[in-house]
Structure prediction request, 356 residues.
Amino acid sequence: MKKHNFNAGPSILPPEVIQQTAQAITDFNGSGLSLMEISHRAKDFQPVVDEAVALFKELLNIPQGYSVIFLGGGASLEFCMVPYNFLEKKAAYLNTGTWAKKAIKEAKGFGEVVEVASSADANYSYIPKGYTVPSDADYFHITTNNTIFGTELKEDPDVPVPMVADMSSDIFSRPVDISRYICIYGGAQKNLAPAGVTFVIVKDDALDRVPRYIPTMLNYKTHVDNGSMFNTPPVVPIYSALLTLRWIKANGGVEEMERRAIEKADMLYGEIDRNQLFVGTAATEDRSRMNICFVMAPEYTHLEADFLKFATERGMVGIKGHRSVGGFRASCYNAMPKESVQALIGCMREFEKMHL
Prediction:
């Protein structure tokens, strides 16, 4: 039976990325050595990092004066590194969910944090609007896509201060105006590579501004100055990220990824809105294209376990919703083929016929 991987993360990758990574793990570039056992300073590996950086800059149209680095620690470590490197007196944060809340908690250890708005009052089912960002803030931090609650910022906010963004789960799914940001970061395991590497896009002249001592490993400048090679980087995930970046370029770039994302999301949300058994959980205007969350309609909540079993038996993998929302979550990252979305829709329609 074909499996349709809707896992929220670690999540689906293009089949050729998996195959080529597997080949490199067996024999990297015909060297007779596994990618897992070569030195990160080997002459064969430096071009991997160089090309990955170049493709980041090309695909996202990153302006001059920015660096791309690959780190460990996941986005959760960046919650600390961002204020360590950029928060001098005050920072502004938009609270749109679990990960934004965690970032706010870490920032409070480094200075004043202004929570400009929150959607916690409605279990993060919408993106706050009409808020004011203090003009004296060192930066404004956003989480562009909220994997747990299924909401997404699809445009770059227009605010009077530099921005920082956690783009773990929607990077490369839409064009981004990088010039508005001093830092964009994300764990790669949702839309780019296997777990283990974190990407950071950082504006060079925003570094070395805060007066505090920053521990060497937590200083972005350390990794910029050393080309991500200050210590051993996560070699295998970086290689897989390179392969994914090549795949994105070969498939039409970020603009085509956005077109596909809109198409897949419109298909699935269309079925959720049509099907009498299901209801979407996010405000319509803020619905995520990456993580599509839905529950059983109130009169059919008793069928939730039955539908999960029904869909799982037909190859749908990872559609159980996060425990804080319940219901179902279909993660439709770049590598998710339209055919898998159609298969899930088919399950929903078949289940509806069985119970109506």
Notes: DSSP finds nine helices and 14 strands in the chain. The first helix runs from residue 15 to 26.
